[in-house]
Every structure is written in structure tokens, then in C-alpha cells.
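Notes from hallway chat w/ T.B., transcribed later so I don't forget. T.B. wanted the structure written out for a chain they're using in a teaching module, and asked if we could keep both sequence and C-alpha cells in one place. Agreed to drop them here.
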Amino acid sequence: MALHKGRDNHRLSVCIATQNCAHKLVKAIESVLPIADEIVIVDGGSSDNTEGVARSFEKVRYFHHPWQDNYALQKNFAMDRASGDWILILDSDEAVGVNMRKKIRRLIASRRHDCYIFPTYWLIDQDPLLYVKSEKLYPDYHQRLFRNLPQYRYRENRRAHIKFPEGVQGAGTKVKDTHIFHFDYLHNDRKAREEKVRKRSELAPDTDHISRTHYLFEDYPHTIKRCREKLW
């Protein structure tokens, strides 16, 4: 529940659900340190140093919540512990770029908007910053920044490729030049991504095509483009 205190009465909670991602978390956390009033990390039961990495940052509030084969449950658990007026939701293998850090205080100061939608860069290289462009992978808009309100919680009957309830799903203001940077392809080779598709398809069989088009991009028409936004 939002406490409505702090800078301009617009406190920002960044929420990240994670597990065994110690090597990924630093980039995600560091990208939001300049803008977050708090960073809520929910760990599904890591056997690596995820907890140690998370707790090394002063702004982090760390929680343990056992993984139950349901991404919606984990993310909702994190958002329910957010004290901010606004929530920015990230995965542990993601980061925000310079435009988000420049714009976010203006975005959340608005009285006209409850939710913002951002495009995604699925990165294939970091030097230079290159992303995969395909029918499914770009712009790949998602609701990532929204007021801390009850309606912005994921439907828990869908365990993967999760969505908000009807009425708010897909609704919001697009911010076309401000991206979420996704590092999955840089962390996982083809074999690892095939295993990810298998697991996600077990959780939500009706979303198998979504998993394949996103994680096995090599099997579909695509091009490689240079990112227009800088990460740092």
C-alpha cells in the first residue's frame, strides 16, 4: 500500500522478482538507483548469492517468498510490499536506460495518467548496443510503470506471460523513446533458451508460441538494429 510520502509526494518503488540471479541483479539495480525511492526484491529461494547482492544496496528491501511455479504470484507479492505511490516493474535480467532516468519524475508527477507503456530492446550485443527487431520483438510494448493501485496486479490463474485483469490490461500511455533493456540473449545460449521455452510452456501451454517467438528468435524473420537510446 502506498504511503504517499517523500519527494513531491510521488514515491517510486521498483519491484523485481528473482531467483538465482546474483550475476544479473547488479545491472538491474544500478540502473534504477538514481530514480528509485526503494527497490523491492523478492527471492524465490536462491542457492547463489542473490540475497547478498540485493542486501548490499541500501535502497533494497529484500523478501523471501518460495517459488510456486507462478510468475504472477511472485510479482504480486513484490508489488504488495511496495510503499511507493508508483511502481516500476522489472525482471532481474533487465535495466532502464538514460531516457527513463531523465523522464520518470515528470511522468509520475502527471495527474492525467495512471499507467505508462514502454518498448523493449531485446539486446544481442552491448558494444555497440544492438537489438533484435522482428514482428514480435520490437517494439514489444509492456505496462511497466503504474500507480500503486489494486487493479494493477497480475491475474494469478495465468502462471507465465502474465497479464493484468481485463479493463486495465494493455491500457496506458505509450512512451515510445524510452526503453526497457532486456539481456536474456546475452545471458543464455540457444540450449538454455530452449529449456526456458520448455518450462514456460509447461506452466502455460497456451502461450507456447509466445515463448518460441521471443526466446528462439533465430527461427523467425528478424534483423539486427543499433539501439537509438543509450543505456548509460
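Follow-up for T.B.: DSSP finds seven helices and twelve strands in the chain. Might be a good example for the class.
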